[in-house]
Amino acid sequence: MLRTRLPELTTEMVQAIRREVHGYRQPIGSAVARDLAEAVRLAATQFTDLVEEPDAPQHHYVPRFRRLGRLEYLSGRGMDGLQAAYRIGARVACRRYADVARDAALPGDIAVPLSEAVLTHIHAMAGESVAGFEEARAGAADDVLRSRRLLAARLLERRRDPLAEPLPDLARRAAWPLPERVRCVLLPASVKVAGLDADVLRLTRGDELHLVVPDERLLTVLQGTGAAVGPAVPLEEAWVSLHCARLARRLGRSSAEDHLSELHLLHGSPIGSLLADQVLEPLRALPPGKAERLTDTLDALLASTGRTAPEVAAALGIHPQTARNRLRQLAALYGDRLDDPAFRFDAQLALRSRSATRFSLP
């Protein structure tokens, strides 16, 4: 009776687990989703075997349940998510097995021993998975280094896995006291940095080397390495520091903290380009050289205090009369908009975005 219901039962169990355990809400077809479906099918099949033949050997199932625990460890998760999945599966199974018993006109009091059998089975499976988790942890080569790499990856994630091992526990295994603030550093993976303190976390991703630095004194050894250093940020925003370091590298800057406004403009460069096109539309019909000179003049005018020809001339290194001629041309092209605070703000933002994009590295 139970075996014929296995397909619909396993489907319902998988759906319930995916709905209630956030970490298992991965796309159908992903490795996590496949592992979950296989684990549920395995558990339901073994329970059915036990009901049909209580004395049949079950030892061949043990390695498979231990494998689930190893997968949790190797994925950087704790056991909480898998334990929750076992409990949810047991709840669905108890309800559905009771339905099967009722449909088969079995005595009503059979529900109690059936539920107890489900819970005993789940407890045994969970125990094997915990054993697999602990075996993987104990057998990992150089667990501290692995934990440090995993910790660096976790800190640099923008979206955290709710099933992941708690950060304090991971930091304890990595022997890395959690600081309040960190800086992130971006280097080419090919660069060999000597003298880095043991407190610096390292993570290589593709052609990049990422460092998570808890103490600014440790940055002195990076001089001359071509490193891009992100700003100091709260620990939970480490990814922001790395993001700033990457943008600083595009601008050819070594310190992101000294150029945050440029980085902000560069980050929104596609929108900034649209805004620049809009602001510079009146200059589009002009010859390129003349359009560029008037663009520079507009930028100098907007940056000046009194908006006078001598100020603009001094900023551009040209004769005041030349500045007056250019200002008259701008007035003819833009009219009253040059006196509109909203336009002036848009124009300054557009020109700064344009400048940041033009001088960024590919």
Automatic annotation (TrEMBL):
<feature type="domain" description="PucR C-terminal helix-turn-helix">
    <location>
        <begin position="294"/>
        <end position="352"/>
    </location>
</feature>
<dbReference type="Pfam" id="PF13556">
    <property type="entry name" value="HTH_30"/>
</dbReference>
<dbReference type="InterPro" id="IPR058663">
    <property type="entry name" value="PucR-like_N"/>
</dbReference>
<feature type="domain" description="PucR-like N-terminal">
    <location>
        <begin position="2"/>
        <end position="153"/>
    </location>
</feature>
<protein>
    <submittedName>
        <fullName>PucR family transcriptional regulator</fullName>
    </submittedName>
</protein>
<dbReference type="InterPro" id="IPR025736">
    <property type="entry name" value="PucR_C-HTH_dom"/>
</dbReference>
<dbReference type="InterPro" id="IPR042070">
    <property type="entry name" value="PucR_C-HTH_sf"/>
</dbReference>
<dbReference type="Pfam" id="PF25906">
    <property type="entry name" value="PucR-like_N"/>
</dbReference>
